[in-house]
Amino acid sequence: MIDFSRDSQPHIIAVANQKGGVGKTTTTINIAAGLVELGARVLLIDIDPQGNASTGLGVAAEARKATTYDLLVEERPIAEVIQKTGIDNLLICPANSDLASADIDLVANEKRIFLLHDALHQASVDHLGLDFILIDCPPSLSLLTVNALVASQSVLVPLQAEFYALEGLSQLMLTVRKIRTTANPGLRIEGVVITMADARNRLSLQVESDARKTLGDLVFKTVIPRNVRLSEAPSFAMPVMQYDPSSKGSEAYRNLSAEILARHPLASATVKV
Ligand SMILES: Nc1ncnc2c1ncn2[C@@H]1O[C@H](COP(=O)(O)OP(=O)(O)OP(=O)(O)O)[C@@H](O)[C@H]1O
Ligand SMILES: [Mg+2]
């Protein structure tokens, strides 16, 4: 039997922004694949009732026998809900529309904001030998996103290069601050990544420059360009690195993955003497 056990716990990152369509799922799928390319073992948790990350990684609706709903609401053990994807070392906990009723189903559950946290801190998670757990959040600050933020060490925020981008950010930061003062004092901002940027568009450049002025080093050096390959890849059920490895989208997400890995080196990369 292969022993995947590692010395350290996986780094847990929520990919969140309550604004819809800003590139959360695209970012989650492609940094998951980028980190795997760089030698990591990754679990992607789809906590969005839309199930876009599950579809994008080729887990068809009928193959979602157990889902994040079962993990949170039925409290099924994590080993029973995760599945392999077509990519070695990339596992997924898929989601479907069942999750849409989680808010209501959990209303009387006193632990309701800790359910994902508790699921990810089961001893069996250690045996998966994970380096990273990435959580693809829905476009809201609902109970599902709160569960992701309570369970995570950090939050990565995709920011679409468009006019109202920074306004929505203050609401998210307020939520992060609230969670820090209550359920998860250690929650950090992993960073803000500008998505769908267009270097020929003045507004896009302005958003990037404003974000760097306001947020400083919190903004990743890598900027994700608008690239049609990134929007095509999910319909082929692949991360962009597989669909078109030499595209601008692949290059950008590889660079972003390297920036993340530089901050959280793999346990296996630690020299042991
Ligand atoms: N850099 C990009 N270049 C071109 N298209 C992109 C890029 N990033 C995302 N897209 C496309 O934009 C749309 C929204 O992206 P995505 O689904 O990743 O956003 P999201 O924030 O997860 O959306 P939701 O809030 O609905 O979950 C998708 O059709 C996706 O393929
Ligand atoms: Mg999404």
Descriptive account of the structure:
With 273 residues, the protein is α/β, with parallel strands linked by helices. It has a seven-stranded mixed sheet with strand order 3-4-2-5-1-6-7, sandwiched between helices. Helix 9 links the parallel strand 6 and strand 7. The structure holds adenosine-5'-triphosphate and magnesium ion. The site of magnesium ion (MG) has 5 residues, from helix 1.
Topology, pairings included?
Layout: E1 11-15, H1 24-37, E2 42-46, H2 52-56, H3 68-72, H4 78-81, E3 83-84, E4 90-93, H5 102-105, H6 115-120, H7 123-126, E5 132-136, H8 143-151, E6 154-160, H9 165-181, E7 188-195, H10 202-215, H11 228-232, H12 240-243, H13 248-263
Parallel strand pairs: 1-5, 1-6, 2-4, 2-5, 6-7
Antiparallel strand pairs: 3-4
Bound molecules: adenosine-5'-triphosphate and magnesium ion.
Residues 24-25, 48, 52, 136 line the site of magnesium ion.
Counted beta strands: 7
Give the averaged pLDDT, no decimals. 93
Helix content: 25-40%
| Inertia-based shape | globular
Please give the radius of gyration in angstroms: 18 Å
Structural class, by secondary structure, is: alpha/beta
Task: Give helix and strand order, one letter per element, not per position.
Answer: EHEHHHEEHHHEHEHEHHHH
For the record, give the distance between the C-alpha atoms at the N and C termini, rounded to a whole number: 25 Å
Q: Which stretches are low in confidence, meaning pLDDT under 50 for 5 or more residues running?
A: 1-5
Tell me the number of helical segments per DSSP (H or I, 4 or more residues long). 13
